[in-house]
Amino acid sequence: MNLELKTIAKNIKLVAFDVDGVMTDGSLTFLEDGREIKTFSAKDGLGVSMLSRAGIITAIITARKSPIVELRAKMIDIKEIYQDAKNKLSAITELKDKYKLSFSEIAYVGDDLIDLEVLRAVGLKACPNDAVLEVIKTCNFVSTKKGGKGAVREICDLIMDSKNIKFENLKPKQ
To answer: Mean pLDDT over residues 47-74, rounded?
Structure first.
């Protein structure tokens, strides 16, 4: 990790994630009755949970709405959930103001064009390696992993490492 990226990551106090294409591989699977199925990585989930346990605010900002997202957020200790967020910049600005942060203290992980406005505003701009090209060009950290396949964990580890936070030193999950 280069020094500039480490400095940016060290100052992060809030990390917000898109869902489809970031926390999942972007596949949308529907049952005949209209219910949706999403597949999440357990390793990604532990990474997000570790951030929360380290005192870093975690959030989901997604343009879609699904009860599965609420369930997953609860499972991995994400307290801030914005679903059906068509204007993601408005959501991240609301979080910034709520926690009295600057944009430079916020990381956002996105993968598609709807995420660009937020990515351009925040300090740590991250994406999976299978994000769309314009997002990849905008980000200052591109994971070596795909969405839903370890990208979230890699980004969580980057932040934890930059702050020198070790798993064994984290407070137990409540």
So the answer is: 96
